Amino acid sequence: MSETPRTRRRRLPALVLALLGVAAATGGTIAIVADLKREPTSKEIKQAGAKEIATRWQNLKVAAIFPPTLDVTVSVVNYSAVTTVDPLQAIRRAAVAPPAGCAEAFDRKIADILVKHGCRTALRATYVDASGTMATTLGIAVMPGTDAATRADTAIGAEDEKAGVRTLPVRGTVAAGFGDGNRRQFHETGNDTPYLFFRSSGWLVARDRVKSAHMAETFQFADTALGRVMRNFGDTEAPCRRQEVQC
């Protein structure tokens, strides 16, 4: 049966609509592909970076946050300066505590300030120096954001000289007797991230009192340990290159 001119006129709108639909679908696909290929804006990168650093404590494995051993680099001069790693000077992790509430993990004065500024949780680990005579408990306070961490850091002020993170005694290890009463030096610092970092250091053996002026040198291993742990939370450059980030 042949088509009449009238029948052909009726089919034209349907054909036009079909072609328009194909064009629209194709255009939509092209737009999606183009959006996937485009570079993220500076705002998107900033937002992705802020989200990643705030959740890094949840995404990193325990061994990445608190490494089992921390190497100490030593400069050896033998005709030329050479930097080596001395395994005999390694700082060793005694144990890691499960995440705890900030009111539980810190002394009252510090805990009140942290909680007031929204501290979410606390991470702790105890390390022992190479001699086995000193220990330090490192603490990380997870804050709601960088601004909250900065405000808490300011409020703590000089309080960190006499209070800080509570110790983590480790039964069955040389750090079994490392209680709060063994602490002799406290320290707290921030690094412009949603985290604050603490250490409480002391001796595992009885010894004479050390003058305050010599404390920093005495517990140098604790500074090394804290600095190494902070490094894991200090890298905020190029967030889109991190595996956990989608920009």
Which keywords apply here?
247 residues; PknH-like extracellular domain-containing protein; six-stranded antiparallel beta sheet; globular; alpha+beta
**Relative helix content:** 25-40%
**Rg from C-alpha positions?**
29 Å
Low-confidence stretches: 15-20, 29-36, 74-85
* Widest sheet: strand ordering: 1-4-5-6-8-7
> CA-to-CA gap between the ends?
59 Å
Write down the domain tally. Answer: 2
> What's the number of helices?
8
Give the overall silhouette: globular
Helix/strand/pairing category: alpha+beta
Beta-strand percentage range: 15-25%
Task: Give the H and E element order.
Answer: HHHEEEEHHEEHEEHH
> Which whole number gives the mean pLDDT?
80
Organism: Actinomadura fulvescens
Protein name: PknH-like extracellular domain-containing protein
What does this molecule look like?
A hairpin with a 5-residue loop joins strand 5 and strand 6. The protein starts with a helix and ends in a 16-residue tail after the last helix. About 11% of the residues have low confidence. The strands form 2 sheets. It has a 6-stranded antiparallel β-sheet. A two-stranded antiparallel sheet has the order 2-3. Helix 5 packs antiparallel against helix 6. The chain has 2 domains: 34 residues; 171 residues, no CATH class. The chain contains 8 helices and 8 strands, in the order αααββββααββαββαα. With 247 residues, it is α+β, with helices and mostly antiparallel strands. It is globular. Helix content is 38%, strand content 21%. This is PknH-like extracellular domain-containing protein.
